Amino acid sequence: MPELVPGDVFHDPDFTFQDRQTGNKLFVLLGVSRAGVCVVARTTSNPSSKSRGYGCHNGDRFPNFFIPREAGLFREDTWINLDYLTEFDAAGVARRLAEGRIRRLPFRLTPGLLAELVHCALEAEGTTAAQAEVIQAILKGR
User: Fold this and answer.
1) Which of 12, 26, 65, 134 could covalently link to 31 via disulfide, CB atoms 3.0 to 4.6 Å apart?
2) 122 lies in some domain
């Protein structure tokens, strides 16, 4: 099975949202627990109710982390949504990746950017204690 690395960005044409609806979405892998749970944050290019300054915006109506197009990662201005994080089974994600049902993009967030994002996610109102435990491992170098 393919390795899942925090900071990887994936395209999922059938991403399952919190309300069980599905849609075409990019998501960032924030961490994988020893029990095999992936914690991910979905992205958006919709600027509605979001700040445009680089970095963490937990004071916005919908907490987010903004990465401008000029940073050279995404094709357009991109917000990583932190109003709620999503959990997936790591084996299921790896299987979907191996089957071609999701696609890993050809770049990964740099360690510094990933650390900034994780700090922001840890302070976001919607992050659960269990999710925080998984993603804190990034900061501890695990």
Assistant:
1) 134
2) yes
Three-state SS sequence of 44-83 = ECCCCCCCCCCEEECCCCCCEEEECHHHCCCCCCEEEECC
Which pTM was predicted? 0.94
Q: What pLDDT digit, counting tens, does each position of 62-72 carry?
A: 999 999 999 99
Closest CA to 36 of 109, 85, 93: 93
Give the single-character DSSP code of 84: S
Note whether residue 28 is domain-resident. Answer: yes
**Domain of 65?**
8-139
Q: What is the pLDDT of residues 7-40, one digit of tens each?
A: 999 999 999 888 889 899 999 999 999 999 999 9
With a cut of 90, say whether residue 118 has pLDDT above it: yes
Residue 105 and residue 54: Cα distance in Å, rounded?
Answer: 21
Residue 1 confidence (pLDDT): 63
Retrieve residue 41's tokens. Answer: 């944050």
> Residue 69 — φ and ψ, nearest 5°?
-55, -35
* Residue whose pair of structure tokens reads 């360690």 in the numeric block: 111
Count the neighbouring beta carbons within 10 Å of the beta carbon of residue 96.
Answer: 18
